[in-house]
Write a structure and sequence with these properties.
Number of helices: 19
CATH topology of the largest domain: Rossmann fold
Radius of gyration: 24 Å
Order of helices and strands: EEHHHHEHEHHHHHEHHEHEHEHEHEHHH
Number of domains: 2
Distance between the termini: 45 Å
Helix content: 40-55%
CATH class of the largest domain: Alpha Beta
CATH architecture of the largest domain: 3-Layer(aba) Sandwich
Number of strands: 10
Structural class: alpha/beta
Strand content: 5-15%
CATH superfamily of the largest domain: Thiamin diphosphate (ThDP)-binding fold, Pyr/PP domains
Largest sheet: 8 strands, mixed
Strand order of the largest sheet: 4-3-5-6-8-7-9-10
């Protein structure tokens, strides 16, 4: 989103579009989507997801030189004002610089789009505790890292912990940041007579919920630090003032961590009631260590330690979390509904308490053409194997049911989603069992169909409960 003046000196091959057609605030602005040809993995997902077919995949030899020149110019363009966009909407999100890029993950990875979207949503306020696994490998493939910074040199804070304690590791971030903010507020209130009560009230009355709120908080903090000057008795406040701007703590990991090895810690921190957010990138298998079966692996899928197909139902970690009643829980799949995925991340962030977002992530271990990964996500939702829903406890205070199911009733045969039709679609992890042990596959398929039907009825029943009597009483 740039002005005509910003576009001066652009290469002849540099393309842009009129941004005013997308938003009334962007009159006279230009909109650009620019790809770094030197870093493109050739997964083709961008061309498949583009609704207007505006992106193409020309031969690398033709694209490398002109697109590299375009990229170098693009890198010099100023970032758009975050207060003018809504990061929870797809069309607005595309205007924001990702602070996660060129990860080195498998071409077409199903996990990385969620992380990229999270950085666009939160910018440099994001603090990440990352469990060991794929996301820790492509997230910390030193000496380089895909976690980057904005034009001001600020970016997300990221650290990796182990499988078994990453949830507690992230909770430690939250407790530490809360304590530092509490201390900074104490120092601020004690200095009110020296720096002015207006600055104190400006921070205390700012909810810091929107981008405009955060921008205002940063301006207030800058004014507080300026008012402190070099006065010795205000040195502690000046040093701690940055903590007056709220940070967002997200705990990231895969299903091997969340469903299995780290589940005890995950359950503990969700039950703590603290304002921590969890993003589980569910590949339904231990991806990083070679494709072993996890409790997230669906029935009939072939994986290491389940070579004859897993014979147990998939663990419903979302349903388990909902039983606490005060945890925001959601299940998303970007390939099925990208708008829902982004709005869910924004809603989870806005919720004042613990949140668990489970994101379907297609994986090379599924035995699929990764260029069709988003199609396989859609199939999983269409057959009912993966539900899209939001459980927001805030709704109860308004007398509304906290559970909203976003996906439609299953409309695709489970068999077609698992093994495809006429040689198209499907996933090798299911096809393998169908070919090597057809009788067992048919048995598993029947059980999987029962699982899906039973779960759909359960969630429909939960979403139909009347909560009107539980509305918060008027003050």
């Amino acid at each position: 989103m740039n002005s005509p003046a910003d576009m001066e000196g652009a290469p002849e091959t540099f393309k842009s579009a009129d941004a005013s057609k997308m938003h009334k605030n962007w009159q006279g602005k230009k909109f650009v989507i620019q790809v770094s040809a030197a870093d493109c993995t050739g997964c083709t997902l961008c061309t498949r997801v583009c609704p207007t077919n505006s992106l193409t995949m020309p031969p690398a030899a033709e694209a490398l030189e002109p697109e590299t020149n375009n990229w170098n110019f693009f890198e010099k363009l100023p970032d758009p004002d975050r207060t003018l966009v809504n990061p929870g909407q797809v069309k607005d999100q595309q205007f924001l610089r990702p602070l996660f890029e060129f990860s080195g993950a498998c071409a077409g990875c199903g996990e990385t789009p969620y992380i990229k979207a999270l950085t666009q949503l939160l910018g440099n306020r994001l603090v990440v505790a990352n469990a060991t696994g794929c996301s820790s490998i492509y997230g910390g493939n030193l000496p380089t890292t895909p976690w980057t910074h904005d034009a001001d040199g600020r970016g997300p804070a990221w650290a990796n912990s182990l499988f078994e304690d990453n949830a507690q590791f992230g909770l430690g971030f939250r407790v530490s940041l809360d304590k530092k903010q509490e201390y900074a507020l104490e120092l601020l209130e004690a200095a009110a007579d020296k720096i002015g009560t207006g600055l104190v009230e400006a921070i205390k009355s700012n909810p810091q919920k929107t981008e405009a709120d955060v921008a205002a908080a940063r301006e207030t903090v800058a004014a507080i630090k300026a008012a402190c000057g070099d006065t010795p008795e205000l040195a502690a406040l000046k040093a701690q003032a940055n903590y007056l701007v709220s940070k967002s703590v997200w705990i990231l990991g895969g299903d091997g961590w969340a469903y299995d090895i780290g589940y005890g810690g995950l359950d503990h921190i969700l039950a703590s009631g603290r304002n921590v957010k969890v993003l589980v990138m569910d590949t339904e298998v231990y991806s990083n260590t070679g494709g072993q079966c996890s409790k997230a692996t669906p029935r009939s899928a072939v994986a290491k330690f389940a070579t004859r197909g897993k014979d147990q139902v998939k663990k419903d970690i979302g349903y388990m979390a909902m039983t606490y009643g005060n945890i925001y829980v959601a299940s998303i799949a970007m390939g099925s509904n990208d708008e829902h995925a982004l709005k869910t991340l924004a809603e989870a962030e806005a919720y004042d308490g613990p949140a668990l977002v489970i994101a379907y992530s297609h994986c090379i271990n599924h035995g699929i053409n990764m260029a069709q990964g988003l199609d396989r996500q859609k199939d999983a939702v269409d057959c009912g194997r993966w539900l899209l829903y939001n459980f927001n406890p805030d709704n109860i205070k308004q007398g509304k049911n906290p559970l909203t199911i976003k996906s439609k009733a299953p409309k695709m045969p489970v068999r077609d989603a698992l093994i495809g039709v006429d040689g198209k679609g499907g996933e090798n992890r299911f096809k393998m069992l169908a070919k090597t042990n057809k009788a067992n596959f048919e048995k598993m398929l029947a059980l999987e169909e029962q699982d899906i039907a039973r779960r759909w009825r359960l969630y429909q029943a939960l979403a139909a409960i009347d909560y009107s009597a539980e509305a918060a009483p008027e003050a």
